[in-house]
Amino acid sequence: MSESAWIEAVSRLWPEAEVSRSPRGRRPGPATAGDEVREFVYLPDARRARLLLPLGTPRAAGTALRRYSHDLGVRARLGRGLLSAAVRTGLPQRFLPDRMRVRASHPAGESVEHRLSEILGRRVVVSVSIGNARANRKPVLQAITPSGESLAFVKVGDTDVARELIRAEAAALEELAVLRPPGIRVPRMIRHESWRGLELLVMSALPTGVRRLRPSGAVPVAAMSGLSAVAAEVRTLAGSPFLDRLRRVPAEIGDPSAAARLEALLDHLAERYGDLELRFGAWHGDWTPWNMAWRRDAVNLWDWERFARDVPAGFDLLHYTLQQFRPTTSWTADLVWSDGVLAALEPFGVGERAARATLALYLTELYARYVIAGQGSIGEPLRPQADALLDLLDRSRPRM
After folding, report:
1. How many domains does the chain have?
2. Cβ atoms 173, 167 nearer than 8 A
3. Which keywords annotate this record (predicted)?
């Protein structure tokens, strides 16, 4: 992501402020009456930036680095912990080369930090991450007190796609607060609102620890099964809302050739498995090692924007297994239809036919997600993955 894109994103969070590159080693100029000056440092640098750390609040900056997911190995955890401890001293921030300056001369209350301080009832500063170029990219903020207490994570909808996903996640968090899936801790929604043309979703911060409490290969199968079971129902595929929804996707695809190929695939699946009874339930929609962390005997699980009901049981487990073979464009039929991937569904008690049906339906669901998100200029990064998945599905028909 270019430095200009970072500056553009931060400009939306500090409306009407002057956002610019801050030369290394130069102190901010004197602020005039009513001005507010904030500085951030790029980590690791502006060219490869993944995170903006707030300058001048070393404890908050250190906390922003203490985020650990299940996919981080021991060396990465140790390195991140040491960097966090060093940043808390304030010294490394003096030598990080690339910085961003925000100079605001408007009344207080017009920055995202002011708004979050009002919502949370305490003064906060934010770190900012954005992620790689993709259709669902959005700024994610961590709201932290100057003393280093993490209060919330905030997703910011600054595109139509991001706004839609944030609304979906807000609805999911409300539903999950009632369903309370066993073995899973879900962020609590603190506030969902429109602010200055942006969609804000403020959620409680789930704690993660530097120590790995489970081996890297541990998969939270029981928690996945528990989530599926909160909305469990047995249906034939032909009579399921899931297949009805997939049947509507070809009409939403702008490419007539791709739409026809998907329609033919759905006809094949309906003919092959229409009479098959499957267990349907809820799924997270993007359950991966980097979206979770073990906390004692439960799983802290975030990023619920793809949560849905009425999907075949086992989708989360297939997603967790296959998404570790990144990128999606590298998937082959031999990899996807290997005995190991099919065997991953054994904890859900499905036979071979049901396992093959579930895998075929998961790949189709994933293609439907990518092809819809890949339309328009903002979706261009997803198009190769959508095309690769459709080719893979066509090649996989003999194995279904």
Report:
1. 2
2. no
3. Transferase
